[in-house]
Amino acid sequence: MTDQNAMTTSRTRLPDSFSWHALHIAALSALAFAQPLFDTVARGGEFLVAHQARGTDVVGLAIALTLLVPAVPITAVWLAGLASARLKQLLVLLTIFVLIAFQTLQVLKLFGAWSTASAVGAAAFVSVVGTTLYWRASVLRSVVSVLGISIVVVPAVFLSQNSVAKFWRSSSRARSSPAPATLSVPIVMVVFDQLPLVSLLDERGEIDAAAYPSFAALARDSTWFREATGVSDRTNHALPAIVTGRYPRRNTLPQASDHPDNLFTWLASYQLHVHEPITGLCPPRLCGSLRGTSFAAARVLAMVADLVTVYAHIVAPRELEARLPPVNQHWRDFGPPLWQRLWLQSKVEDRRAAFVQFIEHIEGGPGRPTLHFTHVLLPHEPYIYYASGRTFDGPYEPLAGLAPGDRWTSDPWPVAYNYPRELQQLQLVDRLVGTLVARLKHVGLYDPALIVITADHGASFRPGDYFKVPTTGNYADIMSVPLLIKAPNQHSAQVKDANIETIDILPTIADLLNVEVPWPTDGVSGFGGPRGDRKRVYHDDSRVMLNFRAGELSKARAEGVGRKLDLFGRPASPDRLMGLGLAARVLGQSIEAMERTHQQRFNVFLNPPSGRTAAGREMPFLPGVVSGSASAEPARHGRPQLAVAVDGTVQAVTRVHYPSQGPPVWAVLLPESVFQERSAQVEVFEIMEGAGGRLTLRETGAVSELSTDARR
Fold first, then answer.
1. How far apart are CA 472 and CA 460, in angstroms?
2. Whole-number Å distance between alpha carbons of 287 and 52
3. Which residues are CB-neighbours of 696 under 8 A, at least 6 positions away?
4. Which of 57, 319, 584, 683 is deepest in the core (most CB within 10 A)?
């Protein structure tokens, strides 16, 4: 019996060799952790650009993910072996279990939307089976030993990909094609991110002076190129096109080494005051490293810290992934508050505060002229700002009604709910433009400066169509962008309706400076260069091109403006949603003056008030988003419309929405003006139409106390 037990033990006991344990852990770690992260980093290269990675950083990242990450459990196994052979084997099996579980979660995500419980349960089951087989079957351990080659192959494949190799293999440097040193005109250039021209326009096709007075005031001193369009729906291609005057090219990154001839190298004789939050088009030798550090180890550790959030997106079931901070807007600093506390606290504030800081650093006076350039990450989503700059929602909340693949649901209501949030944030942008102009006037630069205000691309709010991918139905929303250019000492408005694209901005600047761009450009000056009647839009990493006639744009843009006005009235106001029929008639009315009923139809539930706190002392939080759910019965009543009253006055209206999964839901954004007192009573009613068109409010019992203390 003793001999039999010994034989059984020998078959189930792991080998004692520490080197084999280390090899197996490193091999499985390379497949479970390093390989999917390398794929994400290499896809487009934006992550490396955002971190201003250098050649040593890329190699260091490959080493860190392949060797240093598994070194942690390997060291733990070694230490455990010093204490007990049994403890060492237990820790090895536990490590193998975890690695198999993470790999399984990635595979499961490829085969449908698993719930969190089912995904975790399935991963645990596969891990138990896999770990047991690893423990008992020497053949499987031999297979894992062969997989040890992945420790070399995985980082080698990563480093050899074009989007990565250029960081460590290329010896090219951004070259300067300087403009004449005699130039003395200061230049101020602001590129907003995702600003649709449609959102700025009124029913006459002009900039809405009531909603956006700062844009309108600047237009009175500028030339407005009304037919301007972006050339790409992605910032990583749209922004280089603006500063180079060239159409996007495939397999290029938004960095100086891929675009050596650009606005910054051309104006190298200027003082350069440049803020690029997610690109690196101004070479470090001219602009320095505004975000980075001089220590390679620190830069690699920063990338590894951010990749923790990237990996969470890779393995998390979709319902959990929706709660994670986005990783594709800044491609860096998205891990807080657990890591560096930058996204939730600083990064949310930075989208406004970074522009304010840029404005405050604008100076006049004698000396070399200055190029003041900034790319502002507004009014890009997440839509969380009121016009005052106070936040009404958290930075991680997904856009309701936006399905995977960037396509809106066919139900128009979730789209209509998000649209006013974008308009609120755009009103904040307008205030910031006013702050910029006031600063320029204060330091004496407004008159002599050449000022350019534009955007890289827009966005679309059309049910059933794409949010940011241009199509024949939404291209006017996404590609039509504002372009205001104030020539030095210009004080009269001019509107030009000639065909112009953002690749024409740089040649137009050169024209106003009376110099030549010293490299061939695809663009021409907006003040007289020969133009065709075609427009190009590059998307899907510039693999697909949408081509349309310039004459089609004006009509399509007017249709988009008409849709906006049908929703928000004339003039448009994000506080007044008019496109709901019955609901529009109760806005602003006192509930005491309206007929009410207790008729039982279905239940409405009110979510607890948000407990979020302010993102910063200058950015107090207001609980402006009120939301809830409804029982299943509304399906029998069509799509019920709801009124949300604050202290007895209807301040917002909404409609029950039926998502693909879960119960019916609803949500509203309250006007900022309702937040006057420290607390308020919120009540939800169903809007019903009786005989003769008379409206009745059905009490739902959904009542809550709303704390309006912005600094709680």
1. 12
2. 12
3. 594, 595, 596, 597, 687, 688, 689, 690
4. 57
